[in-house]
# Entry
Amino acid sequence: MAVRPIVVWPDSRLREETKSVETVTDEVRALYKDLWDTMVAYQGIGIASPQIGVPIKMFLIDAMVATGEEGADPVAFINPEIIATGNETDKSDEGCLSFPGVYVPIERPSTATVRAMGLDGETFEIAGTELLARAIQHENDHLTGKLMVDFVGPLKKRMIKRKLAREADYEPDQAEI
Ligand SMILES: [Zn+2]
# Structure
């Protein structure tokens, strides 16, 4: 178990193609633990493998957000697939561990259902609303190389790039997706 450095945009590893997991091996379980440690250290509520530089289709969401269970282990979503989204949308500020201190208002479907494999190798589905729906879509985007900056115009993108370049010495601070 280890806290791994967070890959910060515009690092190209955030755009790398990710590989599916065939079976849950010790290596996959070790990756889960590293993601967990890193998410906790940086006080995120979700984290995706490319954010620690590993191009594997897996993300984690904090248990309180994913299932409402306090003190439970974060939920692992392996080979996730969003199988349904609602017609209604809402717009809300999003943060991301790979964009420290940056918040971007993003409009997304307000409900989303994801199908994924768990650490036990079994397939499960979770239907999310509100913050969970947003977290599922945000983390799933990471596995397809899509990032918060893809939702903003070129001017705002340039501002974000400058801000992150200025704050290259990243310290964990507040809760971010
Ligand atoms: Zn993110």
Observations:
- Residues 153 and 159 are 10 Å apart (CA to CA).
- The chain has a mean pLDDT of 94.
- DSSP finds four helices and seven strands in the chain.
